[in-house]
Amino acid sequence: MPLSKLNPVYIAGTGSYLPEKILSNAELEKMVDTSDEWIVSRTGIKARRIAAEHESTSDMASIAAQRALDDAGITAEEVDLIIVGTITPDMSFPATACYVQQKLGAHNAVAYDISAACSGFLYAMNIATAQIGAGLIKNALIIGAEKLSSILDWTDRNTCVLFGDGAGAAVLRPGNESTGRVHATRIGTDGRQTGILKVPNSGTATLDPEVQPVEGNATGTIYMAGREVFRHAVTAMKESALGVIADAGWKTEDVARVIPHQANLRIIDAIRERLNLPKERMFVNLDKYGNTSAAAIAIALDEANKTKSIVRGDKVVLVVFGAGLTWAAAAVEW
Ligand code: UT7
After folding, report:
1. Burial class of residue 295 (count of CB atoms within 10 Å of its CB; 0-12, 13-18, 19+)
2. Mean per-residue pLDDT, 210-238
3. Topology of 182-333 in CATH?
4. Do the domains spanning 9-179 and 182-333 agree at the CATH topology level?
5. Which residues line ligand 1 (CB under 6 A)?
6. Residue ranges per domain, the chain?
């Protein structure tokens, strides 16, 4: 059912949190056989944040969430639903969202996690928008939070230079506000591609023969077939962006800002070319934070909001891609 048939939903506030420690490309040069030149030219990433040892995913998520609540002007007690998108939960159970509920004092909320890798935040937006739109709940807190530094093989140059830690959040509410209206969301999955991006040997599946012999892939760390992921990412993000633009009844050229997944500047450029949009319409902050998976879009949305890169009336497209494979997009009128 199109969102236009449901009650209107808007983004009432955003927040984010980045850990203090900055890990530069120059520092990575001392850890693995890489160079600032390779990382910048192949990905656009210059630095990433690394959480402190004592800092958990729910710690980062709770700070970002409280900032989003403050921005929305509502209290934790008013929240009906908390969804955390993460692949680096505090522990396998209870859900990281339960810890967030506890830390915020959001005792009236239902809280659970979504495992959709990088797409987790926009999966959460899709679910929360549907529940609010159907009148089942009022206020939802959607969060993307990751401590990816905890699942990286710091001897594998193919992956360790790409990722970072952080959290972002948004508050969704019912209402016909003129700013932040969610006009469309789409989510998608292709389980045939589970093999190209995963954390092998981290769960109940027997040891993964595809990955075990590969030098440099420690048990329980990220494995990625980069080129294949790249190819799928471009197609899926282009199609889901065009999908929500059509669902919202917009024209592509009217989109003021695309907030794409912050994985690789070359992927962002490839999508921009396919959408035929000028460079300045793409929001980019991966140079500072690298790829923070489920947190990336949420952090970028908050930064775009707070720095006025998106302003009232802007047609904004959020679009993401991740392991699963999963993808998602949203069309929001700011
Ligand atoms: O958020 C989840 C979604 N993830 C993504 O969207 C990531 C998608 N993939 C990518 O962004 C790119 O494929 C990467 C950035 C991961 C890799 O870039 P690439 O241009 O596809 O490089 P490649 O994997 O084909 O490797 C090219 C060369 C290889 O050397 P040889 O075989 O040509 O001698 C690699 O060993 O670059 C080498 N290489 C590196 N060299 C220096 C790989 N990583 C590094 C490194 N430093 N960190």
Report:
1. buried
2. 81
3. Peroxisomal Thiolase; Chain A, domain 1 (3.40.47)
4. yes
5. 34, 38-39, 42-43, 118, 157-158, 161, 226-227, 229-230, 233, 263-264, 267, 291, 293, 322
6. 9-179, 182-333
The correct CATH number of 9-179 out of 3.40.47.10, 1.25.40.10, 3.40.640.10, 3.30.565.10 is 3.40.47.10
* Residue among 36, 42, 155, 320 to mutate when testing ligand 1 (max atoms within 8 A of CB): 42
**Residue of the CA atom closest to atom 39 of ligand 1:** 158
Please give the Cα distance from 300 to 284 (Å, whole number).
8
**What pLDDT is recorded for position 203?**
87
> What's the mean pLDDT in 286-311?
98
Which whole number is the average pLDDT over 306-327? 97
Distance 147 CA to ligand 1 centre (A): 22
What is the average pLDDT across 180-194?
96
Distance separating alpha carbons of residues 272 and 291, to the nearest angstrom: 18
Q: If you measure from the C-alpha of residue 226 to the centroid of ligand 1, how many angstroms do you get, rounded to a whole number?
A: 6
